[in-house]
């Protein structure tokens, strides 16, 4: 395995501070369901709840939550954009009665979209996604992988990426995960290579990409690149300090340094011998 993990939570190193959670929902039953699922998670703790948006804004300012479960029914017409009123910039999980707002949610940057009635198994998928996202962004040591690669996929097996069309109105597409050939980091932004010569730039870090994409299909080489291993075609040395990586479905190769190429070759050799 690329990331080696421990076998159980008994030896899983705990973070210095648990991630704080706020639940914004007017229905007591939904709050209880989320509380029950979250209380058994070793890294998350519910610090506050709110039944209205004004109360949520006040609670967010006081408790500064890391994660907010936001029921759209409480948003009173403002939809997902209501999250911008929070004093902090927490990770947002949208909770809704129907899937109609999923596209808007992922365009906004929500990390997951839960449908009511809430199922405990589905909530645990969300909690694992939160765990990975914060573990990677904080550089924490993570234990052995226990979730399947499907847990790492965004809902519907797609990721939100800005449209390549130049229009006044900002448009976001839901692109199939298997169309993401590689991702290159540009500090807090990233460049995504899609089939053909289609490249998109968006405000999403490489750590956030790593939390979204299935680990068994995408590998990280060096600090700046995530690549889809199944699309790999050839690795060619172009000069002393540069290597060209060619992919199926795109003509232009990806240029990387020797260290990244060496790591990729080791991964490929390991997968071939397994």
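-> sequence recovered:
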């Amino acid at each position: 395995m690329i990331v080696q993990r421990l076998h159980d939570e008994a030896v899983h190193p705990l973070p210095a501070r648990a991630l704080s959670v706020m639940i914004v929902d007017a229905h007591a039953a939904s709050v209880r369901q989320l509380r029950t699922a979250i209380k058994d998670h070793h890294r998350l703790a519910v610090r506050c709840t709110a039944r209205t948006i004004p109360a949520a804004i006040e609670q967010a300012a006081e408790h500064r939550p890391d994660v907010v479960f936001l029921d759209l029914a409480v948003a009173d017409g403002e939809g997902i954009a209501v999250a911008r009123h929070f004093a902090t910039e927490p990770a947002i999980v949208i909770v809704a009665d129907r899937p109609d707002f999923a596209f808007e949610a992922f365009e906004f940057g929500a990390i997951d979209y839960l449908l009511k009635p809430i199922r405990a198994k589905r909530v645990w998928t969300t909690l694992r996604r939160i765990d990975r996202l914060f573990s990677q962004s904080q550089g924490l040591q993570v234990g052995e992988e226990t979730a399947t690669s499907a847990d790492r996929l965004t809902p519907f097996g797609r990721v939100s990426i800005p449209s390549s069309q130049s229009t006044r109105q900002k448009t976001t597409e839901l692109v199939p995960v298997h169309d993401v050939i590689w991702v290159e980091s540009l500090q807090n932004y990233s460049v995504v290579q899609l089939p053909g010569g289609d490249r998109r730039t968006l405000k999403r870090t490489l750590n956030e990409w790593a939390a979204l994409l299935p680990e068994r299909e995408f590998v990280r080489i060096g600090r700046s690149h995530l690549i889809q291993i199944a699309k790999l075609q050839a690795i060619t040395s172009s000069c002393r300090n540069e290597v060209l990586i060619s992919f199926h479905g795109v003509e232009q190769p990806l240029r990387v340094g020797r260290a990244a190429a060496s790591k990729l070759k080791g991964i490929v050799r390991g997968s071939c011998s397994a």
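The chain has two domains: 15-147, 152-273.
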